[in-house]
């Protein structure tokens, strides 16, 4: 879970935001900060804030509980701090607005996922009338856009290219929270990228619930490859990274663009969730084991050095020991560079919640443990193969001993890092050729590489 506090001051009110959940939620929080910051003074201390906003996540049980705990924790500042207005926004409030309002009366203003650009209006309305506001209405027509305050490392920024989802996987309630799939216009996206680059951003990370379907609703065909091509022409863009690409939606023009465009990271996040055809069918996934294997082979054939990340759900209703064994053998065979494992969460309102053969929690935990142990062994071996190789590395930070950065095969916050000896001075934001000298479980250690050292 991403968590940070930022904010600002209107009429001498200080405002702080805590953002929970995914990168799409982070963008919403950055849009809120951008709107608030026109009038507010920034603060990153909750105890100083007159107004505290929690942008919640409501995707799975663990995330819901964290969101509720955070709201309750921040509510304490109404008693012992400066807080005069407690606001909750995001997926949890969109999903459980009335119940949450009754459960936590300390919440003064509650918004869903739609009205972030109007947040100043709601703050002023509460200050003026001192009357509780519950506004969790929803419209499929809206996509949150606007000026943002970047909360990442300033070298990288996420750009949402579409909102919502039409897939209706049986375990997921995102379509009910975020609505139907709708792409942003290319003009709007390119304008945002230009603004981000003017702030010093070098890596553009494209996200959506499914990035590969971009353009279908607006232009009648998939146009992610066209969007990438146009972004790559913007001066200052060094890397373009693609996340959340459904394997069944990958297409030839996109693969060719990744393979031929030097600014596109040879890295794909392919959320496959499972490999057993029986389980994929139960999940409502629009793919098959054969199709997944075919697209992985196609990617590795056309882009030999591509790094692949995926996410897996274990303990889905009806997942048998044979299904799990098949999944484990698949992971051992494919050797993903990075892999996240999640225990199935029974979410009310989802089709899977009504299925028979729900799996006991102890079995889910054991299967998760087995896959994580296997993946750890795979990553250690893959990391060892990096020793002696040379990568362009984006320097993001430094400590007393090392400069710290990533290569194109590492996404921020979720993958490993590269630690570089400080013998050679460099600046945060530089992209430097680095020779890998050592590997650890998940990270790499390197030195600056000079052509003369060949």
TrEMBL record:
Residues 13-128 form the MTTase N-terminal domain. InterPro entries: Elp3/MiaA/NifB-like_rSAM (IPR006638), Methylthiotransferase (IPR005839), Methylthiotransferase_CS (IPR020612), Methylthiotransferase_N (IPR013848), Methylthiotransferase_N_sf (IPR038135), NA-bd_OB-fold (IPR012340), Ribosomal_uS12_MeSTrfase_RimO (IPR005840), rSAM (IPR007197). The keyword Iron applies. [4Fe-4S] cluster 1 binds at residues 22, 57, 91. One of its GO terms (molecular function) is catalytic activity, acting on a tRNA. GO terms for cellular component: cytosol; ribosome. Residues 384-450 form the TRAM domain. Pfam families: Radical_SAM, TRAM_2, UPF0004. Its main location: cytoplasm. It comes from the Bacteria. One of its GO terms (biological process) is tRNA methylthiolation. Gene3D superfamilies: Methylthiotransferase, N-terminal domain, Nucleic acid-binding proteins, tm_1862 like domain. NCBIfam families: 30S ribosomal protein S12 methylthiotransferase RimO, MiaB/RimO family radical SAM methylthiotransferase. This is Ribosomal protein uS12 methylthiotransferase RimO. It comes from Clostridium amylolyticum. The gene is rimO.
């Amino acid at each position: 879970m991403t968590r940070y506090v930022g904010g600002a001051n209107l009429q001498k009110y200080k405002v702080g935001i805590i953002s929970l959940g995914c990168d799409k939620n982070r963008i919403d929080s950055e849009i809120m900060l951008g709107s608030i910051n026109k009038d507010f003074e920034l603060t990153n201390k909750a105890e100083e804030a007159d107004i505290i906003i929690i942008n919640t996540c409501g995707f799975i049980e663990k995330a819901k509980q964290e969101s509720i705990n955070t709201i309750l924790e921040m509510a304490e500042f109404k008693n012992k701090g400066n807080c005069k207005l407690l606001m909750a926004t995001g997926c949890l409030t969109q999903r459980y607005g009335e119940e949450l309002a009754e459960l936590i009366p300390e919440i003064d203003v509650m918004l869903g996922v739609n009205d972030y650009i109007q947040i100043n209006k709601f703050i002023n309305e509460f200050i003026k009338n001192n009357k509780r506001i519950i506004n969790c209405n929803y419209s499929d027509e809206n996509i949150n856009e606007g000026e943002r305050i970047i909360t990442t490392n300033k070298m990288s920024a996420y750009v949402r290219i579409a909102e919502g989802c039409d897939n209706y996987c049986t375990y997921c309630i995102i379509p009910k929270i975020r609505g139907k799939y709708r792409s942003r216009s290319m003009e709007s996206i390119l304008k945002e990228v230009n603004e981000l680059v003017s702030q010093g951003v070098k890596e553009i990370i494209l996200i959506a619930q499914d990035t590969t379907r971009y353009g279908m609703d607006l232009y009648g065909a998939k146009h992610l490859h066209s969007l990438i091509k146009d972004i790559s022409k913007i001066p200052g863009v060094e890397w373009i990274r693609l996340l959340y690409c459904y394997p069944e939606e990958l297409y030839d023009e996109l693969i060719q663009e990744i393979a031929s465009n030097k600014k596109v990271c040879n890295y794909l996040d392919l959320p496959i969730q499972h490999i057993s055809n029986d389980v994929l069918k139960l999940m409502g996934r629009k793919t098959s084991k054969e199709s997944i294997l075919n697209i992985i082979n196609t990617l590795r054939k056309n882009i030999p050095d591509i790094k692949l990340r995926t996410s897996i759900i274990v303990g889905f209703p009806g997942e048998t020991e044979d299904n799990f064994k098949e999944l484990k053998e698949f992971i051992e065979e494919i050797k993903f560079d990075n892999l996240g494992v999640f225990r199935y969460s029974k979410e009310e309102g989802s089709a899977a919640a009504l299925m028979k053969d729900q799996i006991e929690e102890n079995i889910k935990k054991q299967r998760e443990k087995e896959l994580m142990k296997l993946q750890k062994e795979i990553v250690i071996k893959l990391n060892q193969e990096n020793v002696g190789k040379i990568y362009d590395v984006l320097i993001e930070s430094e400590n007393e001993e090392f400069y710290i950065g990533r290569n194109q095969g590492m996404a921020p916050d979720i993958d490993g890092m590269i630690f570089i000896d400080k013998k050679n001075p460099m600046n945060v934001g530089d992209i430097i050729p680095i020779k890998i000298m050592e590997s650890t479980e998940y990270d790499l250690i390197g030195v600056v590489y000079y052509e003369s050292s060949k």
